[in-house]
Amino acid sequence: MKSYFTIALLMSASLLANAQSLTVYTYESFTSEWGPGPALEKAFEAECDCDLTFVGLEDGVALLNRLRLEGDQTQADIILGLDDALLAEAKSLGLLANHGQTLKGLSLPYKWTDEQFVPYDYGHFAFVYDDTRVDSVPSSLRELVNDSQVSIIYQDPRVSTPGQGLMLWMKSVFGSESSEAWKKLQEKTVTVTPGWSEAYALFQEGKSDMVLSYVTSPAYHLTWEDTSKYKAASFDEGHYVQIEIAAALKSSQNLPLAQSFLGFLISKPAQDLFGGTNWMWPVLASAETPEAFSQLIQPETLYFRSEDVAENRRGWIKEWRNAASQ
Amino acid sequence: MTLRINPTSFVITLTLALAGVGLILHPGSGYPMVEYFDRWLWNIVEFSILQAAMSAIFATAIAVPFAIVLASRPFRGQWVVKGMLNLFFIMPVLTIILGVVSAYSAWFDVFSLKGILAAHLYLNVPYAIRIFWERLERIAPRSIQLSQTLGFSRFQQFWWVKRPVIVDALRPVFVLIFLLCFSSFTVVLTLGGGPANTNLEVAIFQALKFDFDPRAGALYALFHGLIAAFFIIFLGRRDALKVEQGASIRRVKSRASAVQFVTLVLLFLILLYPLLALFNHALTTPWVGSSRLLQGISTSLMLAGGSAAFATFLALSRSLQTRQSRWHRFMDFGLLVLPIMAVTTGLFLIALKLNIAFKITTLLIIWLNGLMALPLVVAPLNSRIQVQRKKYQRLGEALGLNRWFQIRWIFAPAILAVLPWVFTLAFVLSVGDLGVAALLGSAQFVTLPILIYQAMGSYQMVLASQLTLILLVICAVCLLLAEWVGDRHYVSR
To answer: Do residue B211 and residue A158 have CB atoms under 8 angstroms apart?
Structure first.
C-alpha cells in the first residue's frame, strides 16, 4: 500500500518537474496504435524536445462536453478532434487561444478563416457496407430511411462526431420531417454506440449490414487488407462533410509550444501521415495520400454553418433522442 | 439528557445536506423547467422501473427453489456454499459484467436489456438465495417436529411450515433487489447506455457528461430519490431492514442429499460459468497491457485504502452507539439503496461552483466510496458488539465502568479480531467502484475500473477482461489476507 502511494507521489512529482510538456485531449481512435497519435507524437517530440501526451476520450463531441465541465481548470493544452460543426459552440466558451498560423496552401471543402481553430483533415460521412453480403444498396438517404431493408449501426450524436454528422445529414435532407425519419431509421438500427471505434468493430463482426463511417474508410481495407469488398454507399442528396479541427487553450502553461504544435499539424510531415493513419483527406494540397484514395467516390458536399448548429443542436438532439428511445 | 452527535450520523446528514444544496444551487444556466418534462424523461423513468422490476421478479423466482432445496437439510460444507454466495454480492460489479459479456455474447446480444438483466441476476440471485436460506433455517426445530408428529406429508410440511416463511420474506427480498437494481449504474452504463436502455442513474451521468446540463442532472436525481423513497416507504417494512443474518454455528455431520448435490452442481455451474469464460478470455490471448496500468492500479489501491479506513471509522462509531433508533436503522438501509449518482452529482456541483472540483477528486471519491461501503461493513461489526454488550452490560453497570473503560476492556478485544475483515470488506467494495470515479475524475484521472471501462468502450474486450482479472486477483488476495490475519472463525461461519 505504502509503496504504491510513494510510486503515485513520485509519478506526479515527475510530471510537475517537466515544464515542457503538452497534454492533448483527443478522441479514442486517434490515440490507438494504428491511429495518427503515436506517429505524430514521435515526429513532434523529435523536433520540440518536449513530452507530448494524448488523452483519448470517447469521441469528438465528448471533448466539447469535457471542456465545458473542466473549464479553465482543465489540464489540457490542446483540444484536438472537434469538428467544424461544433466550432461556434466551442468558441463561445471563451477558453481558446489564437493559433497564430497563416494557414497557407490549404485545400478544404469550403474556405477556412478561423483564428482559433486549425483544420487538420476532412472527410465526407458515408454508410460503409460489405459488398459480398449486401445485395440492394440504397442510393440515397431517403431510400435508406424509407424503403431499404438493410440494418445499420451508428454513433450517439451526443458523444460522437460521426453520430452528430448523421444527425446534421438527416436534418439537411429531411428538414422539419426529421423526427418521423428518425423513427423509421430506428427500426433498422441494430445499436447506437458511444464512439466510432465500437460501431466499426461491431460492423466488422457482422452485427449489421451497414455502419456509419466515412467515404475514405474503404481505403483502409484496400491498403492493409488488400480487399475491395468494403464500399461506401454513394447517396444522391450529397454527403455531409466533416472538417476535423484543433485549438490551443488559453489556460495552457506552455502556450507557445501549443501553438507550434498546431503549426506542426498542418506542416507536410504531419499532413503526410493523416491519409494513411486517420484515413481522412489531409488539408494540405501537397500532402501525400495512400494510393487507394484514388479509388474513392467523390461526393457532393452538404454542411451547415456552425452558428446554425450551435443554435439548434440541443433541439435536434432532443428530436433524435425522443425518437431513438422508443 | 445530553445531546451527543454521533460522527456517523453527522457525516451522513452533512453529505445529504451538501448534495441537496449542490443540486439546488448548481452552476450552469439550464433551460426552462417545462422543457425537461418530455418523452425522454418518461422513457427513462419507465425503463428504470421496468428493468428493476424484471430483475427483482426473476431473481426471487430463481432464488426460492434453490433456497428450498439447500435449506431442506443442513449438510457438511454448507459454509463454503454460503461463502461463495456472499462473495458474489461483494465481488466487483465489473467482474460480473465482463463475465456475462465473455460467457453469453455468443448466445444473445449482451449489450441490451437482456444483458442488463443477466448481470443483475448474477449480482442478486446469490444474495436472495442466502436470505431465503437463512430464513428457512431459522424455523424452530419444534415446528418441524410438531409437523412430523402430526404425520404431515412432505408437501403438507412445506405448505404449512415453510411456505409462510418464504411468503413473509418475498416482499423484503423483492423490494431490496428492486431498489438495488433501480439504483444500478455500472451495469446499465456498460451494457445499456444507448438511448433505448437508459435508466435515471445513467441519465444523471449523461446529463453532466454529455450535455453539461446540471439542471437536468438535478431533476433526474430528484426523480430518482423520490421514486426510491416511495418504494422504501410504501413497500418496505421493518423486516426488510434486517438483511443481516444471525450466525448459526451448528456442527453438521450429514452429507448433502442427492437432490441437494444435483442442485449444488447446477448452482456452481451457473455461477462459475461467466467467471471461467472471463478467465478463458483473458488468459488464452497474449497480455495486451496498458501504459497507464501502474498508475491506474496505484490510484485504485490508494483510493480503496482511504475509503476502507473511512468506512471502518464510520462503522465503528456507528456500532459503538448505544441508541439504536428507527432512524439509525433506516439510515443503515437507506445508504444501501442510496441514489449514489445523485449524491455524487450534488457534491460535484458544489465543488464546481467553488472551483475546486478537480483539486479534491481524491477526497470526494474516498468520502463517497466510504459511505457506500458502510451499510455492508457495519453488519459484522454490529453483531460482534451486540454480543459483547449482552454478555457484559450487566457486569459493566454493576462495576460502574465508564464508557471508555468499557470500550477498552469489553469491546476492543472483540472489535480487533473482526477489524481486518471489516477493513478488507470495505476495501474490496471500494476498489471495484466505477461510477463515482468516472463522474468525478478529470479526463486524465485513471483507476483500474476506469481503465476497464475505457477498454470496453473502445471494444478491446481482451484488454478489458485481462484488467478485470487483475482486479479480481487484488480482491482475492485482500480477502485471503484478511482471513489469515483476522478471526477465521467469523469468516467461515
So the answer is: yes
